[in-house]
């Protein structure tokens, strides 16, 4: 038996008729950039998240970069300012800060949830700290009340990286609606995935929304009148049309992810496999199901021999990457331990019960000593 980590073809084929219809509408409209489909997606996504504004952009990294860039244009952030960010995240979160000439200040996560630890944030705040960029890693939201309180108490901007948390709800409020602004990715493998690159910014701030809207389109709101030295980071009509189809199914697909995760949690019983910790059911959308195993490579080989494909998210912490030489000397033991022990099991929504049980049995048959 073979269980792939993620079968994107099968996932999208579930909606083949609807996706083909959406594709044909765009084809026949003859309008491919900044049109009705984008406007419709921005409206739908705003009402889904409960926010005032959604601004579609080219990808998730651009979403984060443009939020910070817009705050610079508004005079709220300046080059050299510090932004607190979790040390264990996908590198994009940190790149968005350094790309803008600001300083990422890395903090250790909570070893149980892998997420930003509010108790550790206040320790790194200086008079240069201007924002917290939090990441809802693996699809689980951070403990939002505590972090929001710190942002409020210290007068910091709160920016959410929601690239892995589309649809997650913490204490009744969706991810993307907790801070001053949020960046989303709709990379094909995310919970809400396009059929190519795509991203969005959500915010309740009218001024920020206006600036981001201009920045993504050459810094221009009125064609050929440029307010800012902007970029080209637009979400095209085709991806917007396909995302409108996929958004309708997001809650149902997240429910399938939850049922797969709860089966893993109840049935994987093994002294060497540490299962993930869930804080609030609705606040986890299981973008990834990440377990920790001390002898990870051996465990991965065992599963691979049984045909179960796994992936490591992520093998090297950002501060140990060649790209961040200036951070290479730093030591974050919790983060490094996470990077050395995590391994992601498949959470493909097209898996059968048989597939899921097969993966569970494969995990439970792991023998660390042979
Ligand atoms: C995927 C991802 C991004 C970047 O999104 P892209 O669309 O690939 O640019 C940013 N942050 C996190 C946490 C991600 O997982």
UniProtKB/TrEMBL annotation:
Key word Membrane present: no
Membrane-traversing stretches: none
Keyword rRNA processing: no
GO biological process terms on file: polysaccharide biosynthetic process
CDD domains on file: AHBA_syn
Keywords: Pyridoxal phosphate
One Pfam family here: DegT_DnrJ_EryC1
Residues bearing the modification N6-(pyridoxal phosphate)lysine: 190
Origin: domain of life: Bacteria
InterPro entries: DegT/StrS_aminotransferase, PyrdxlP-dep_Trfase, PyrdxlP-dep_Trfase_major, PyrdxlP-dep_Trfase_small
Catalytic site: 190 (proton acceptor)
Range of residues in the leader sequence: none
Family: Belongs to the DegT/DnrJ/EryC1 family.
Protein name in UniProt: dTDP-4-amino-4,6-dideoxygalactose transaminase
């Amino acid at each position: 038996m073979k269980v792939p980590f993620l079968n994107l073809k099968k996932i999208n084929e579930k909606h083949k008729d609807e996706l083909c219809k959406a594709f044909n509408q765009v084809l026949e409209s003859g309008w491919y950039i900044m049109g009705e489909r984008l406007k419709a997606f921005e409206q739908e996504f705003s009402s889904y998240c409960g926010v005032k504004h959604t601004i579609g952009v080219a990808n998730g990294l651009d979403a984060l970069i443009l939020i910070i860039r817009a705050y610079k244009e508004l005079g709220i952030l300046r080059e050299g300012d510090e932004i607190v960010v979790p040390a264990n995240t996908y590198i994009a979160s940190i790149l968005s800060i350094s790309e803008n000439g600001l300083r990422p200040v890395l903090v250790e996560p909570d070893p149980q949830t892998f997420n930003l630890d509010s108790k550790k944030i206040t320790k790194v705040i200086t008079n240069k700290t201007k924002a917290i960029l939090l990441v809802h890693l693996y699809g689980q939201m951070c403990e939002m009340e505590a972090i929001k309180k710190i942002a409020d108490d210290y007068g910091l901007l709160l920016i959410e990286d929601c690239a892995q948390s589309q649809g997650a709800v913490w204490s009744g409020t969706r991810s993307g609606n907790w801070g001053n602004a949020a960046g989303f990715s709709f990379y094909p493998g995310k919970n809400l995935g396009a059929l190519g690159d795509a991203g969005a910014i959500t915010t309740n701030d009218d001024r920020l929304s206006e600036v981001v809207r201009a920045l993504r389109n050459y810094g221009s709101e009125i064609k050929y009148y440029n307010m800012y030295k902007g970029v080209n980071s637009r979400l095209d009509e085709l991806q917007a049309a396909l995302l409108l189809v996929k958004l309708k199914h997001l809650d149902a697909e997240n429910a399938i992810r939850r049922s797969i995760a709860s089966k893993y949690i109840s049935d994987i019983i093994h002294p060497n496999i540490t299962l993930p910790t869930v804080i609030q059911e609705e606040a986890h959308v299981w973008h990834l199901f990440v377990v920790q195993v001390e002898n990870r490579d051996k465990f991965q080989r065992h599963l691979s021999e049984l045909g179960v494909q796994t992936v490591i998210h992520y093998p090297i912490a950002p501060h140990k990457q060649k790209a961040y030489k200036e951070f290479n000397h730093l030591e974050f033991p919790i983060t490094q331990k996470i990077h050395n022990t995590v391994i992601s099991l498949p959470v493909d929504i097209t898996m059968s019960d048989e597939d899921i049980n097969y993966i569970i049995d494969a995990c439970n048959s792991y023998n660390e000593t042979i």
